[in-house]
Amino acid sequence: MKKFKEVAGNNTSDLSEMNRSAIVRILQQKEICSRAEVAKMMGLTQASITKLVGALIDMGIVSEVGIVKGNGNRRSIGLRLNAEKNLVIGVKFSRHVFAIGVFDISGKLYTQQETEYSLNDFAEDVIASMKEQIHKLLKKYKNVVAIGLAVPGPYLRGEGRIAMVTRMPNWRTVNFIDEFKHEFDKPVFIEQDANAGALAEWWFGNHDRPLNSLAYFLIGEGVGSGIVDHDRLLLGNLGIASEVGHISIDYKGPVCECGNRGCLELYCSTMALLKKAEKDLPELFEKPYENRAEACARIFDAARAGNKKAIKLVNEIAEYLGFGCVTLINAYDPEIIVIGDSIAQGDELLLPTIKKIVEERTLKAISSNVRIEISKLKIDPTLYGAAAIATDRVLRKPSEYLTLNKD
Ligand SMILES: [Zn+2]
């Protein structure tokens, strides 16, 4: 088994790079900031900051801009990250569709495109089309510094393959690292979809800072979660940490594809919701639906219109999401849980029940310190997450990646 290893020792030069990285990460969030503010946030002396910022300006990563009001009405020069010079390509790969978007490292979208395919298509044909589209975008957008790819979990990131692909037989043997690592003259970083969503919320979600820990609870065709804890994505040994979709909520329950019984995913994924709805509310599906997200929207709309059966189904789903949140809280101690993907369309119909379950089943000292929200991202969280994978990695090594487009 190939293991992934990213951190070994740190040389003295690495320390400067770590500090430069901390500065660009602050500027990614704050947009414009004075040297004094950065010094305060990092707990470094003004002299150290001046030296570090000087290097970032010389490298073309940071610019001085205008005047900002500092402490005691002192006016200081503002600093900003040259985000528009550093673009990333995000690629979302899922069961029926792949999407590609060009963003800058502040999360601004430049263009996006989507390609549908059937599970009967050959995987190599789909991958060839994906590569061709990326090559075209790289020709058009010269300032791309990295590519992020989000794939369905559980993804073994050391090996480069998806561990459970029973509904995608053509994809069983695909190795994403072999396919993409050396295809382009840009670095490619790959993570699973829930981790991508967590990074999208972390970098582009506009959450109040400082933020210690964020859990992204993905409820779509699959159920999963991604955790960013103190600025780091939680990976585990194989990269599959926080697979809460496969935590059993009934050890005698139905058998899951993963080998466990009664997995949370079997109760609250879009597939689980639709299976019940097609039986209890067949009138909603007389007209065929385009995709599961749209089918779920019909159920939530019916509940909003007062349909009692729909309300009952939605409440059941909300209860399962509540159990999932209790698990996330006990396992990872998040400051905020953000619920995203298709089921999040239930929004205000789901939140009161989820919060009630969390209050009932966790200690008050804990539950009162966790915020539970529905994702407010306007862009598909997995596609945005793919861009966030690349953003996260390039911001960690600014002098390596953000100097590619200096001139
Ligand atoms: Zn399972």
UniProtKB/TrEMBL annotation:
Statement: the UniProt record of this protein carries the keyword GTP-binding: no
One biological process term in Gene Ontology: D-xylose metabolic process
Record keywords, A-Z: Carbohydrate metabolism, Xylose metabolism
Gene3D superfamilies: 3.30.420.40, Winged helix-like DNA-binding domain superfamily/Winged helix DNA-binding domain (1.10.10.10)
Coiled coil, from the record: none
InterPro entries registered for this protein in UniProt: ATPase_NBD (IPR043129), ROK (IPR000600), WH-like_DNA-bd_sf (IPR036388), WH_DNA-bd_sf (IPR036390)
Pfam families: HTH_24, ROK
Family membership noted in the UniProt record: Belongs to the ROK (NagC/XylR) family.
PANTHER family recorded: BIFUNCTIONAL UDP-N-ACETYLGLUCOSAMINE 2-EPIMERASE_N-ACETYLMANNOSAMINE KINASE (PTHR18964:SF149), ROK (REPRESSOR, ORF, KINASE) FAMILY (PTHR18964)
Record's function text: Transcriptional repressor of xylose-utilizing enzymes.
Designated name of the protein: ROK family transcriptional regulator
Species whose genome carries this gene: Pseudobutyrivibrio ruminis
Upper lineage: Bacteria, Bacillati, Bacillota, Clostridia, Lachnospirales
